[in-house]
Amino acid sequence: MEEVDSLMYTDEYNTENFPLIIRSFGHTSVQSPFNPNELLMVGGFGTSCLTPPSGKRAAHGRLSATVRIACNNRSKLVSNSQLSYPMYATSCITTINNIPHIMVYGGRTSPHNSSSHIRILPLHDDDDMTSSWQDVTTSGCCTPAGRCRHTADMVGDRMYVVGGRDESRVFNHVICFHVPTTSWRYVLDESTAFPALHSHASAWWRERLLVSGGLGEEADCNVEAPMSVFVVDPERGQFERHDIPQLDVRYSHTSHVINNQLLLLGGVQLSHTPADLSIIDLSTWQVVRRIRLGAGSVRNPLHMHGHTSHVTSHEEGRVVLTIVGGGSNCFSFGTSFTNTPLRLQLSLPSPC
After folding, report:
1. One-character DSSP codes across 42-66
2. For residue range 78-120, what is the model confidence (pLDDT) as tens digits?
């Protein structure tokens, strides 16, 4: 690995652990519509954060509860209704009949069973747990196949879904779900040159989707290829590609847009370099900063992949990212999790 310029790779950030411990990966989470400092977590693989602390660590497995995680270090059930063990699904907040709902799309219940369902759960700003998950019947010019490891961004009353995979295919389309009419349409169909991607990240910026990183078909994994960001214009059904030669290809990361800058948090890099927080100036498409995240310790490793992250505070050039979960399983070394939530605080002045 080449020596990284010290001005590009800084350590000007702080991380803070919560007493509440969540150990999971492959889940989905979204910020509460009632409080941006509360997160709603669904599915994944790990240990239940609802189990009271004891001297014996709880066994890990697939998770089915919908949990509200508060930044005052408490967690509680949102609903007694369980969702059938989804992994690598996506979640969004939408409003139906003036009531906020969490909407979960796709995911897998086993390596050979990817879901095409959209499920919704009404949300209440209290401890009422009587609501149940409901299936949404959809229509439209396309009927998407079941998938996992895709991304979904809710913009107004439309959910934009990019890529994903099932047990045999990686999808190269962008589709849109319109909530009021429960209908699907293509933004970019399979006939376009948009790449087949899964385990990528996406974020909304200036009426466009920014799709970063990810993996394609296994034969396409080129360690020497640069990181790419695709800008998708849903209204025109067009996209453009920007290569970022300073960065290696990464996947299983998360992304956010703040102050006209794209933040890429963690992920697995094909060059096997350590995970970092990379910041791209969207006016120049140049990397302006890289922040080393470290690897944690033997007892508490830092796996910055398979996680979710949210901007829980942004004021006066200071940004707080709250990170939930992260981990992986390995044939040789077994299953490992990061103890989360983590709160990452950093200065992020507006670009000149």
Report:
1. E--EEE-TTSPP-SSPPPPEE---E
2. 776 788 768 999 999 999 999 999 999 999 988 889 999 999 9
